[in-house]
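Fold description:
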Amino acid sequence: MPNLLVVDSSPRFEQSVSRALTASFVDKWKATHPDGTVTHRDLPRSNIPFVDTAWIGGAFTPYEDHSTEHSAAIRISDDLIAELKNADHILIGTPMHNFSISALLKAYLDQIVRSGVTVSQSYEGMLKNKSATAIIATGGDFGPDAPYASANTASSYLRQVLGFVGITDLTIVLAGKTLAIDAGKTSLAEYVSEHDAELSNAATGRSTLLAA
């Protein structure tokens, strides 16, 4: 039974473009995986902590030697990694914040990159045989032919960090020019429908093309 893990990071909730796009993806994925299950990790509602001294101690100390503080600090990381290990496909939705991913998504990724757990001592990713789709919603245009394409560090970072833990089958959906929605030039529903084919290809596994 295939499992889809959905990681939403936008704080805009009902007004979020990335959330609307991930919801559309989920509908398409369910249509082609009728026996599949969906796990939803909503980062703004999950209280993901930043890495601190106690977390570092827990991550680099054997479990049998953990203090109470270490165990408490590393518990959320253990839970998040368990979700990832149980997933066959990971769907990430994020707005672009200052040319990169959201701070909440960065905090999440810091929790799941762990030596000996998701990355071996020889720096080999341990989360293999999984696929992923990352939907990045951007106010401006950061497409491959856009003047500011090189400023898009969100795509390259996600490709790097997911590949580091072994998830190399990655499709990036770069959803640009979302400011047109706030400007009243198009509706959220119309904008999502414009990405219907791209989302369908990603949800059904017909596209493994990496966007810039």
User: Anything to note?
Assistant: Residues 208-212 have pLDDT under 50 and may be disordered. The helical segments are 17-32, 53-59, 68-86, 103-112, 153-164, 179-182, 188-194, 196-203. DSSP finds eight helices and five strands in the chain.
